[in-house]
Amino acid sequence: MNRAARPGSGVPRGVAFLAPAGLALIMGFAFQGTRGLYESSETRYAECAREMLAEGCWLQPTLRGEPHWTKPPLTYWAIAGGMRLLGRNEWGVRLYGAVAFVLTVAGVALLGRALWDDRAGLTAGLVYATSPFVLGAANVVTTDVLLALWEVLAVLAYWRARRAETPRGASGWILGFWAALGLGFLTKGVSALVPLAAIVPFHVWMRRRGHPGPRLVSFAGLALFAALGLWWYAVAALRHPDLVDYFLEDEVVDRLTTNRFGRNPEWYKPFLLYLPPLLLGLGLWVGLWPGLLRHRVGEIRLRGLKRWLADRPEIVFLLLWLLLPLLVFCAVPSRLPLYVLPLMPVPVLATAKGLSARHAGRGLGRAVWALTLASAVLAIVGKGVLARMPNAHDSRPLAEAMLAEEVPGARFAVVDRAEKYGLDFYLDGRVTRIAARRPRGDAFDDDVDGLIRTLSSSLDQSAWVIAFEANVPPLTAVLDEAGIPYTRAPGWRKYGLLVVSPLPVSDGRRRGSGP
Predict the structure, then answer these.
(1) C-beta separation of 365 from 359 below 8 A
(2) Residue pair 112/124 in contact by the 8 Å Cβ criterion
């Protein structure tokens, strides 16, 4: 049958799934590779993946050839897979984000169907696919878009297990639940376990009300979680025993209890970082909330809050899914806006339920389809405009400025504290870094003078030297004093560019050519 299994949904089964999936494909892939990679997070992930492809070292992430253990490897693998398919470019780097976005939209739609019916699932998929915050997050190279996918799939598997008609079917879905958590653990470690903060108390509450549901913990489920999520940690710890302390102290304890990483530890930052995405991240759909809330408030007044919630366990679950993890995020001193991305299905599903209840027994109505179209158009236009706007963190223009000069066979060197991982990525790893301190007076420190001379005198080919504009005069003074030839090239923003020429030993010392 092409109709919904639950009576009264008024939505064809095919439409309930294909409409959100088709919309998600358009939204997720539009302008996905248009803008350059931003420093420093995007370029760091991209460079780690590039080095994996170049060196074939898939179990030990590296950054500039050094081990880089801050995140498990699944995100790097996903980025590397995109580059293998589409090349070393922004489309290849962000392919995984678009795919994860499409799959998450499908997961949210299926979750709405599992909680209520096909109409709610269709609405949830449409709302999620056109939510600006979610769409913007899918365009950012980070672990959070993958983590959101695994957490949605974990919650979906849990509810499918609760709705299963046979114990065997429920057991299968619980295995899927632990598999999703395992893949999340291979993506971002303990952050993947956040859904348990809602599922465990909800499961206990339902058991006390006489609705035990499936068995949540089993040997098979834990074994599957370990097989998918823990094996890499075990292999890494066996090869590098010191990593056990690093993973536990640096990546768990310090991130949960200290402000060592300097990520918005102030007490008021949760209000600035978390509330705007949760309250405004749905874009135009937020305009429907006042009407939907008035309807719900009227119901609650008639029946009382406790009784109203008791008859709606799905709403209780959504409240737990939102509030308990949010309390954890607020308590932890390391905070970034994308941390709440895995919680965005909650306002989406609540909105979808309100809209589907308004159109009970019918389709969604023209207003919902019109709002979907308007939200999609605005989101795509916004995505395209932002992708083409200049940004100080964009690492591509600087690399393009260097490559445009066409210095055959040139190497690249960076002098200054700027990390600029994007140069490593765009220049395919042909970058040497010179550890420099801020200039004191008119010249660089003696150790930098020596490094510059050593680098330049040993060159058998030209080299780019990149430095902050403020440091270019003392740098050129060092080169002039050493008689090292160089020319100035057009810089970019706050960076100055020099081309240092080869210096054959037989030529002796020549004066720099300067600008």
Answers:
(1) yes
(2) yes
How far apart, in whole angstroms, are the C-alpha atoms of residue 275 and residue 289?
16
Q: Say if residues 422 and 469 touch (Cβ distance below 8 Å).
A: no
Three-class secondary structure assignment of 284-308: HHHHHHHHHHHHHHHHHHHHCHHHH
The amino acid at 123: T
Binning the chain into helix, strand and coil, the percentages to the nearest 5 are 65, 5, 30
Which whole-number Å values give the CA distances from 372 to 14, 111, 136, 150, 172, in the listed order?
A: 18, 19, 17, 25, 35
pLDDT tens track for 295-311: 888 888 888 888 888 88
Residue 49 above 60 pLDDT? Answer: yes
Better-scored residue on pLDDT, 392 or 146: 146
Dihedrals phi, psi of 51, to nearest 5 degrees? -65, -35
Question: What's the pLDDT band for 254 if we cut at 50, 70, 90?
Answer: confident
Write down the residue that tokens 């080169």 correspond to: 479
Does residue 33 contact residue 90 with C-beta atoms inside 8 Å? yes
Residue type, 246: Y
Show the beta-strand stretches assigned E in 84-155.
none
H or E stretch covering 486: strand 486-492
Counting DSSP H helices and E strands in the chain, the numbers are: 24, 7
Q: How far is CA 6 from CA 21, 360, 465, in A?
A: 21, 12, 67
In percent, the amount of the chain with pLDDT more than 70 equals 84
| Cα angle, residue 448 at apex, residues 444 and 454 outer, rounded to 5° | 135
b or e along 28-53 (b: 16 or more beta carbons within 10 Å of the residue's beta carbon)? bbbbbbebbbbbbbbbbbbbbbbbbb
Q: What integer pLDDT is reported at residue 19 of this predicted model?
A: 84
Q: With 0-12 CB in 10 A as exposed, 13-18 as middle and 19+ as buried, what is 268? A: exposed
Nearest to 381 by CA among 130, 196, 195: 130
Q: What are phi and psi of 266, to 5 degrees?
A: -60, 145
Q: What is the mean pLDDT of residues 232-258?
A: 85
Residue 85 CA to residue 107 CA, distance in Å, equals 25
Average pLDDT over residues 35-39: 95
pLDDT at 512 over 50: no
- 457-510 residue pLDDT tens: 555 567 777 877 877 887 788 778 777 788 888 877 778 888 877 655 444 333
* 156 vs 412, residue with greater confidence: 156
Location of structure tokens 């370029």 = 43
User: Radius of gyration (Cα) for the chain, nearest Å?
Assistant: 27
- Spatial neighbors of 194 by CB under 8 A, at least 6 apart, are 151, 325, 328, 342
Which of helix, strand or coil describes residue 491? strand
Could you report how far apart the first and last alpha carbons of the chain are, in Å?
A: 76
Averaged confidence pLDDT in the chain: 86
